[in-house]
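queue> holo job accepted (2-acetamido-2-deoxy-beta-D-glucopyranose)
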Amino acid sequence: MLLNSILTLLALHVAGLHAQTAVTSAPVATDNNATVLQQQPIDKPAGLPNVEWDILRIDPSARENLCQRQIAYCANNCGGPNQAPKNFCNATTMAWGCGCAHKVADFAPFLWPVVQAECSGKAQDCQMICNKDIVNPSTCAATCNAYYQCDTDKAPPSYLQTENPTDLPSYNGPKQEISTSSNENGSGGASGLQSSEATRISKHVCLMAVGLVVTIATM
Ligand SMILES: *[C@@H]1O[C@H](CO)[C@@H](O)[C@H](O)[C@H]1NC(C)=O
Ligand SMILES: *[C@@H]1O[C@H](CO)[C@@H](O)[C@H](O)[C@H]1NC(C)=O
Ligand SMILES: *[C@@H]1O[C@H](CO)[C@@H](O)[C@H](O)[C@H]1NC(C)=O
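queue> job finished
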């Protein structure tokens, strides 16, 4: 009798756990259309100056203009404004997003107006730093040219794309939480998911233990 109710309880909790896992992983799969592809990260050449310029240095009216071009670019890629259920560009933060109704936005990632502007601003800042390099300005300039190959498929990735207009983007490289331990393998997201899964499972184990105690106490 006791064993029976414990087994039932266990079965219920395990079933609940499985159901929850299925529900929480579903939205990720249907969200595919909502993201524009990203450039692959590339190694920084040795001696590349530390560029701290970010896109918010562009003055507000130019950012508004840039955002309008970005939104038009998304609408164009999706096949018209009505075909772009997700299409924003926040001129305050320069966070942007584009998701088409019936396709994945597929214009080259390095050609989006905001991405181009960010790359060219950083490239110019890199050159300005090199101009002050008294030892070897031309080598310095060459490393800038090697890294900031803006408007080409070798351009460094931009991290201004976000899920929502109010999300804060990342202005200088990937967000910290992604780049902590397993960055070089590009599996930061996956291991993050695994650890949150693990916490959830351990919470369930806790719940089961409480359930057991309650069951035994009420027998
Ligand atoms: C995503 O695109 C596919 C076609 O590739 C379309 O059938 C589907 O409805 C789109 N999903 C969303 C959420 O817009
Ligand atoms: C832009 O982002 C900021 C910061 O999250 C937010 O306060 C503001 O409401 C956003 N603007 C729009 C139009 O979404
Ligand atoms: C990434 O991980 C795989 C297996 O986990 C391993 O074989 C590979 O060498 C790793 N790559 C790097 C660049 O660390």
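queue> Confidence is low (pLDDT under 50) at residues 6-30, 178-201.
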